[in-house]
Design brief:
heterodimer; A: mainly alpha; Four Helix Bundle (Hemerythrin (Met), subunit A); B: mainly alpha; Cytochrome C Oxidase, Chain A; 17 helices
């Protein structure tokens, strides 16, 4: 028996820390598969309606602020980078670096959510929220244009919800890291928290072009 | 004296006491029992709605309830039975209890998530019951738009939220099972030594994990459409109501396999143990479970033959639906081959298993009728369809569930049930079931549509037969409830392996200790190796 089995983190249903780590990691991957299926329904609806109403979707898409959207994408990619660095810090047992990178990740995530809130607010001011007061300049297809914004709000809304959950996870990791719970022999929560964070980023990497960039070439 | 010895020994039941030790337990066996109580409650709740439906249909003009109330009755019957009884039934109770035992593990991989999944089912159930008490819901369990989003004046959102939350319970159970089977097997327990019940639950878990998120997002869109009119399913904005049906059935057809696959797994266990022979063609039976899970995702369009989908799509879906018959038939033929020249015992679980084979075969063959494009146009939305899916979901799943419950009851409780009463219950349920649902095939073929609260006079004889059968069926279902409770106190003490079965769950005491095995078992033989079991018993005696 290695000394690892005496770690307090080994739950009683497992025989070895390796088994525990592999189980946790596999569990997170399977959870991410369910997330792919969850967002998959939305991407399916988007694909069908965009093909059917290409003109209205293009027009509606061009009203989104591409500069802010691109900047926000960069912010999110930075957060993924700091997340990787946090996992690396946990791996080599640097508690201080782990804490710093987790804080940076939380900050980047917070900036993203703040910018998103600003963008949503703009949409309300421009009457681009589906409903009785909706109006999009330059088209008679007000119905399909609303469909675009319904999908925009549903998809970015559910993405933001996942970001908020991610921020909660990061705060939890920060609290545990601060308490010195992680070491090179046990940092699974940081690892699988990272998997979740990257996944939420990847969703955005698909959302950004599909929502912001589909008709930019027309200008 | 034996009783005293049992009381002294520590089991999962007496390891700790008090309500808190149950509500905060991480033991998969206790969580299995929590599920057992919960789904039994929902089963009888759904049964009350079924009783009222059958009473209403006793006479052509009804008269017991109004048309509006009738719509709520069949909706609540469907919602409760499908989402809160059938889907969790076998995996969450027997699967939860026995999957870790059968692979020689101390617990599932994630015990806390396992407990969370039970709470999610209860919370989801509370939402559904709130909707029920506040005034009900009348859309049918399928929630088709635009009725559910624009016209129904009932509690669609509360019910939808309930199903959404219960869905996460199902996802977490599936996730837990997949990780457990991959990572928690005892030394020597290779994939092809796994009992077929484990294979079946693994295949089921794949569907739970891949399908349930789709119904979750569909329900979010439905709730969004109803509350905020987002337009996704609204033709006035270019949305498509048929998209809802596609998304709904993408989950809800595979959901049928969530209900039946674990039942097929129990069948393989029962047929082998009670004929004392290894399952014929073990690998083929194992892979047929996976094949059903995969094919189940490719056939959802057969619910939409008359929804305006293209004829070509209809042809492809019809063809693929026929394909599902192949792995299903493989199982039935292989069980039959297992029985051949076996040393067959007619114990209660085996009687349920025989009942299952009969009912599942009728349900499966009539499935071919409704999978056929031309025939389906005639019988679509009639009692023929109602009878078909009840043969699968009630005749199939519940027969196997009760068979499994009898089979594993000595392990769960440490006591035997009364054999005579149990055999009688199997017989009563089989006869009552056929009397209830066989007339419905004829009714449907003659043109009686489903979901109608009254009917022309000439259908009355068949409806009276069906209602009479339902009364018999109700008695059959109440019998196990009573004698199982009786057996907890008065049943004869069961030994560790009363059936002479090969599974690892029978190598530990009855009821098992909290940590399942005193020594982690090492597996050296295939599943269902009765010769090796006999040799081992002999070695013990010597």
């Amino acid at each position: 028996m290695s000394s690892h089995t005496e770690l307090p983190e080994l739950q009683e249903q497992f025989e070895t820390p390796t088994q525990q780590k592999e189980a946790s990691t596999l569990g997170m991957w399977i959870f991410l598969v369910t997330e792919v299926m969850f967002f998959g329904g939305l991407f399916l609806a988007y694909t069908i309606y965009r093909r059917q109403f290409a003109g209205a979707f293009g027009l509606a898409s061009n009203t989104l602020n591409v500069v802010i959207g691109a900047a926000n994408t960069a912010v999110l990619i930075c957060s993924s980078f700091t997340m990787v660095m946090a996992v690396r810090a946990a791996q080599i047992g640097s508690r201080k670096a782990l804490i710093v990178f987790l804080i940076l990740t939380i900050l980047f995530g917070g900036v993203f959510l703040g910018v998103k809130a600003y963008e949503w607010n703009e949409k309300f001011a421009e009457h681009h929220v589906p409903g009785p007061t909706f109006h999009l300049e330059g088209t008679t297809a007000q119905g399909p244009a609303q469909l675009f914004f319904s999908l925009y709000f549903t998809m970015t809304g559910l993405h933001a919800l996942h970001m908020i959950v991610g921020e909660g996870l990061m705060l939890f990791l920060l609290w545990k890291a601060y308490a010195g719970k992680y070491s090179p022999s046990y940092y699974t929560p940081v690892d699988i928290g990272g998997l979740y964070w990257h996944f939420v980023d990847i969703i955005w990497i698909f959302l950004f072009p599909l929502l912001y960039l589909i008709a930019r070439h027309q200008h | 004296m034996i009783t005293e010895a049992i009381q002294e020994r520590e089991t999962y039941l007496n390891a700790s006491y008090g309500i808190k030790s149950w509500l905060l337990t991480k033991d998969h066996k206790r969580i299995g029992l929590l599920y057992l109580h919960t789904i039994t409650f929902f089963f009888f709740l759904g049964g009350i709605f079924a009783t009222l439906i059958r009473l209403q249909l006793l006479t052509p003009k009804g008269g017991l309830v109004s048309a509006d109330t009738y719509a709520k009755l069949f909706t609540l019957h469907g919602v409760i039975m499908i989402f809160f009884f059938l889907i969790p039934s076998i995996p969450a109770t027997l699967g939860n209890f026995f999957l870790p035992l059968m692979i020689g593990a101390k617990d599932l991989a994630f015990p806390r998530i396992n407990l969370l999944s039970w709470y999610l089912l209860v919370i989801g159930g509370c939402f559904a019951m709130y909707a029920m008490l506040a005034g009900g819901v009348d859309t049918g369990w399928t929630f088709y738009v635009p009725y559910s989003t624009n016209y129904s004046n009932t509690y669609v959102i509360a019910t939808g939220l309930g199903i959404f939350i219960a869905g996460f319970s199902s996802i977490l159970t599936g996730l837990n099972f997949i990780v457990t089977v991959h990572r928690m097997r005892a030394p020597g327990m290779t994939w092809f030594r796994l009992p077929l019940f484990v294979w079946a639950n693994y295949a089921t878990a794949l569907i739970q994990v891949l399908g349930t998120p789709v119904i979750a997002v569909t329900l979010i869109l439905l709730i969004g459409e109803r509350s905020l009119h987002i337009g996704i399913f609204d033709p006035a904005r270019g949305g498509d109501p048929v998209l809802f049906q596609h998304l709904f059935w993408f989950y809800s057809h595979p959901a049928v396999y969530i209900m039946i696959l674990p039942a097929l797994g129990i069948m393989s266990e029962l047929v082998s143990v009670f004929s004392k022979k290894p399952v014929f063609g073990y690998k083929v039976v194992a892979f047929s479970s996976v094949a059903i899970a995969v094919l189940g995702f490719l056939v959802w369009g057969h619910h939409m033959f008359v929804s305006g989908q293209s004829v070509y799509a209809g042809l492809v879906f019809s063809f693929l639906s026929y394909f599902v018959a192949i792995p299903s038939a493989i199982k039935v033929f292989n069980w039959t081959a297992t029985l051949h020249k076996g040393s067959i015992s007619y114990a209660t679980p085996m009687l349920y298993a025989f009942g299952f084979i009969g009912l599942f075969t009728v349900g499966g063959l009539t499935g071919l009728f409704v999978a056929c494009l031309g025939v389906d146009v005639h019988v679509h939305d009639t009692y023929f369809v109602v009878a078909h899916f009840h043969y699968i979901m009630v005749g199939g799943t519940i027969m196997a569930y009760l068979g499994g419950l009898h089979y594993w009851w000595p392990k769960i409780s440490g006591r035997m049930y009364p054999e005579g009463w149990a055999k009688l219950s199997a017989l009563v349920i089989y006869l009552g079931f056929n009397l209830t649902f066989f007339p419905q095939f004829i009714l449907g073929y003659l043109g009686m549509p489903r979901r109608y609260w009254n009917y022309p006079d000439e259908f009355q004889v068949l409806h009276v037969m069906s209602t009479a059968g339902a009364s018999v069926l109700a008695v059959g279902y109440l019998m196990p409830l009573i004698y199982f409770m009786w057996s907890l106190r008065y049943g004869p003490i069961a030994g560790p392996n009363p059936w002479g079965a090969t599974g690892l769950e029978w190598r530990t005491s009855s009821p098992p200790p909290a940590h399942n095995f005193d020594v982690t078992p090492i597996v050296t033989t295939d599943a269902y190796d009765y010769a090796a079991l006999a040799a081992m018993e002999e070695a013990k005696v010597v």
